[in-house]
Amino acid sequence: MITRAGGNHENGYALRIDDLSVSAATAGGVVDVVSGVSFDLRPCEITALAGESGSGKTVTALAVLRLHDVRTLRIRTGRILVDGADMASAGPDVLRRIRGEKVSMVFQEPMNSIDPMYTVGSAIVEVIRAHQRVTRRAALRQAGELLEHVGVPDPRNRLGAYPFELSGGLLQRVMIAMAIANQPSVLIADEPTTALDVTVQQQIMQLLRRLADEGMSILLVTHDLAVVSEYADTINVMYAGQIVESGPVREVLSEPEHPYTAGLVGAVPDVANRRLELSTIPGRVPPPDEFPAGCRFAPRCSFAEAECDAPVAQLFPREERRVRCVRHAQLSLEGVEPYA
Ligand SMILES: Nc1ncnc2c1ncn2[C@@H]1O[C@H](COP(=O)(O)OP(=O)(O)OP(=O)(O)O)[C@@H](O)[C@H]1O
Fold it and tell me: Which stretches make up the ABC transporter domain (predicted)?
């Protein structure tokens, strides 16, 4: 029964984010923390949303499911298209249907996302029965199958376990089982392995890779380019609320066209080439009320020129790649390897 993920893929995407801007109320007034973000998630692919802390990855991911904090954040522009619905403007009934049935999410800290008072089996049964008219007994049988599918050893006996009885890695598998219980077409994973040790991290990423290969579209939110390069198909690099570069992972990471991406690539420890010294990008991501009017990366960019003071209104496309840098052509023509 747990086979390929469902969903309406007739347009070639399972989820389309089109010109999404999210504004925040700050002491200094209302400012965009996410500005004009657009990308698609395609079936069978892991799409990474990568960037430093504060670049807007989590706000973007939460906004897809309208789980952002509505006390301070507001979707100002854009569409979030999934299964014929626009999540940006959907009413409560559509939201309820899409969440869990079409798009679901796993978070960084599994222990914080599960009720410690319920057994693993009860928690999964509840999720199944929220969307499917099945008996408790049938749901419990499905829960056992789900645990088996996500690689929990001895799955039927684990149904009676409480969250505190499981390791972090097993608990993250349980969270993934809950997230895929109603066969959504899209899974959003926000730093799903950050809290886990390296071996377990690899196992969880291998599980996500398998789910993608079986048909699911996965949005992987991460600051870890090593994980992106090993497991993702496409990458969207975010900086200061905007996508600055996107395209197939192999191309973007081996030949970055945006100086920011180049800086991030330089910051990945490369054991094979013995480049263990991390080169970091000087400075930090500015807070949203201090975003520069021109290129937002310019103050940290050693290649910035006067022309970078004007806003970069467009992402320059070339085949499957896009880059938000007015100087990108000169940089590649000059063969500059900024942070090699
Ligand atoms: N609820 C909120 N209200 C107001 N501003 C917010 C809120 N949540 C996040 N922000 C601001 O939005 C910007 C982007 O934050 P976000 O958490 O999306 O970044 P991130 O790239 O996911 O970073 P991290 O990896 O640290 O989670 C930050 O400047 C942050 O301070």
Answer: 15-265
